[in-house]
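S2.1 Query sequence (DUF6604 domain-containing protein)
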Amino acid sequence: MLPPFLKNSYHRYKADTNRFTEWLIKTAISCGTNVEELSKPSSKKSGKVTKITLKGYAKLVDAIVKAQIKLPKGIKFVLERAIAIRKRFAVAFRMHSPDEVDAKADEGHLHFITVLESALERLSSSVGAAIDSPKKQVEREVPTGHQISGLMESLALDDDESGDEDGDSDSVPNVEDDKKLKDDKPKTVQSQSFEIEDEYGIEVPESFFIAFCLLNDLNTLRDFIKETWAEYKEGAIDVMTAAVTTNSAVILGKEIINDALSKIDRADFPDSTSISTTVYKLKCLLEDVTLNQLRDKRGEPFNLDTLEIADWTLSTTTILLESFIPVIQPNQASFYQKGHFGAVDTSKPYHQRSNKEKFSSDRETVFDILGEFVFLVRIKNILWLKDEITETMMNMMVIKKVTLHHAFCMQVFLDVGNTLGAKKEAPSNDLRMTSLRAKKNLTNLLGLIKRFPCQSWPKSMTRPVEDMLELTEMQLLKDVWIPLKQKSTPGFKHVEFHLFKESPILSGLTMYDLNLNLQDVGLLVVNTWKSVFPVLHLYNLLEHAPEVPTLDWKDLDVFLKFHDEKSIFIGGRPEGIEESFKRFLLFWGMPATMVSKIVNGTTKPENNSRLRQATGTPRAIAPTTVLATAFHVSMAEDRKAPFSLPIVEKVLEYLDSVPDSTSSGINAFHVLKRKWKSTKTLTPLQLLATLRRSLSAEEPRLLFNYIGLHERCLEFYEKARVQFHDKFVQYNGPNYQKGYETPYVVFYIMHTALMSFKAQRAMFPQGPTTSSSSGVGFGSVMLRKAGEQIVEYTSGKGGKGEIACKELRVFSKMYGKVSEGLESREKEQKDVYWTAIEDAVDPKALAMYQYGRLDARIR
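Output structure tokens follow.
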């Protein structure tokens, strides 16, 4: 079931009508109206229910209009929203335009709409001059920018909306001019809802409205998913963001289906697939379209003239999946031979194809991939991980029954492939490149473990690295299933990595998990060896040393940008050799008393020549990809990517991290942040849009190559140790290397520079005079040479100062993106679209200016 803070369109409708009715009753009571004769209390398990007759609505409105009570903005907004979805339902099942809604069609449904519209018109017009009405939501002649401003204003109006599916309200809307109503506001409202009693007996069954809301929500999710993959296709987001967002949307779709099934009368819809088939037949009848295929159209399981209706009701995939069930036989392969039903023309973009061409390509895609799911069930092999679609379709092969969730999953599978078109295999190519990168880094790491032994790195930690390398080679760089497939179907030509190539979502999720594992290993290495932190302290010291040439180690700059400087530098970046050395020792876990003795030179040489002798527990860094870390925990548990409650909590925490808007521009997530703080409710699309944005923001941090930076730091230390060996012996004795570990070279560099500085200060207590040859302050030859060493290592031909940055430019879609300008404005418009669509406007109306991509699904 949906989490209680997520509201689908039916939840929202119930909450809206409940909120309006509650306001109507309480306001009428405040005017002295006796409402007992207009309502009929009853009880249900969910709490108190009050039934209001249609005539009662009119009388309540009469009393309020007569008293000239002002209609609050929030109440007006939710009433308009309730009317809008009911009208969409009426239009969808009469195939008329909204302007043609009249008594000739579904009179019962129309009658209720008329009652609500009459209430809205009378309450608005009676005090219209006193209301600061929000801008009209849909005006074709208004520029896009103004429309978006209006949408965000409408969205912000709903900050005090009610909080649960039955319309429970913990507050009565604020009405500034109605103090009496404010005084009557209860402190706590028990679970109470209001239902409409149709005394005329002509209202359509509520189950049909619930079914419409369900299909409408699922198709809205489909539109969001298609837009997500269109962004990937254009290079605006990465495949991991697209895949994780889509997988989460599919999981939410399953929960929306289960929620609707718990409310639908099974007498109207016995099972989930009957929702699809019944609504499909009903719409065809209302359009006066024959359900039977024409005799001259052989091979079509239904009349393809109704393909648009079948697509919206998920009937196409339901029919295809049901036709596949008899094919599933014990101990038999079910691979599909392409072209079995004839040649398929895919040269044109999907939206430009005829209905017959669309159906032919969809049928071939469905039957082709279903064989892969049958094979996975047969061999009982565990993938690297399973996305929701793969898991669901494997379940269908076991139970041999089609549900609405099966149909929805397969339709999403088709939508993603059709959106990508010729680029459908691009995600599998991204996965392969990531796998090659992982193999290189893991192989290098195993070599480093042997070259630079570390006491803190036991042999038991090497085994997981070796296992990860082996799995990458066996499952991602080599198709181990090909021999098994060839054995089961001799003579059949199998395509390598067919499942990955046909399933962008599975490829993206696998790539996500692989990068998460690489980040885990990289951070473990950095924290265990402490390889990066010493050079960070040295790099910061050298940047402030006047005798050191200008340094530019870009990879270190990015590392500091991705992590907390205050933690690494113990409060902030230090300046000067004494303060830098203190912070370095404190970071290493050395007690403050010991730090003071070493810095002041009061310890004996043999006591400060080895850093480890006096250290405690060095500090460590944690991953800054908070959302990715939450997903990683879920993935590790069952090799799936569930949309768990901890993940939802991390997504909602992201809203709190969005800075307040300081400009006159629109900030969709600032508005969502206000909404979440006020109501603690979101729509599924608002949650998914926030997830997509936060995943995209984390992508460069997730792809940062910690293993590569670790390798280069060790290489730098080794070069510095060789160059400064004589100086280290001079200041620390010949045994300074006993038990030596490479990163400690920075300790000796900084310690030598500190002693040199103290010696100069002892010789010249007043500091250097202007008569000195250089005319500058004290300097350190050690620091100058260390700076030159960094310049030589990072710059020039073969320089290694920005390898990690170059990798990010190659592998990351978001690294280096322009944060301002036309691109960001267009992205903001998309954010507004998906965060406001369910709250503020009709999707059909808003689609008029949404980049020309999202056409209304019901005309």
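The chain has a mean pLDDT of 79. Residues 206-234 form the longest helix (29 residues).
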